[in-house]
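Thread: Newbie trying to understand structure tokens

Hi all, I'm a second-year student working on a class project, and my supervisor (Dr. K.) asked me to get a predicted structure for one chain before our next meeting. I've only ever worked with sequences, so writing a 3D structure as a token string is new to me. If someone could post the tokens and maybe explain what I'm looking at, I'd be very grateful. Here's the chain:
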Amino acid sequence: MAIQSARYQFTRGEGIAVVMARESASTDAVNALEQWQGAHARRSYTFKMEEDSNEQLIATLSWDEEDAEAGHRLQAKCVQRGVSHTFIELVATPAVVGND
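---
Reply by user tm_fold:
Sure, no problem. This is what the structure looks like when written as tokens:
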């Protein structure tokens, strides 16, 4: 099973969840990513917090290429938390060497 990785930008979204938001956009993005990751064993993310950057988060997400729900679930979790995500770029994933 191959792993796909991509970099995304997360910012404050639109809709009712935004009106109800009490946290910064970056905090809500991390909460959405935690829920997204927790729903599947082969999902992960990393990010580096920038100073004075509470209103955006840049994160690298990884998921199994056979995980057909990864994109839909990410979208749903972001909407629930009042954040939007924008694709930036694919990230090269090192090849996994097996013991064949």
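A couple of things are worth pointing out once you decode it. The beta strands are 3-12, 44-47, 56-64, 83-90. Residues 25-38 form the longest helix (14 residues). Feel free to ask follow-ups in this thread.
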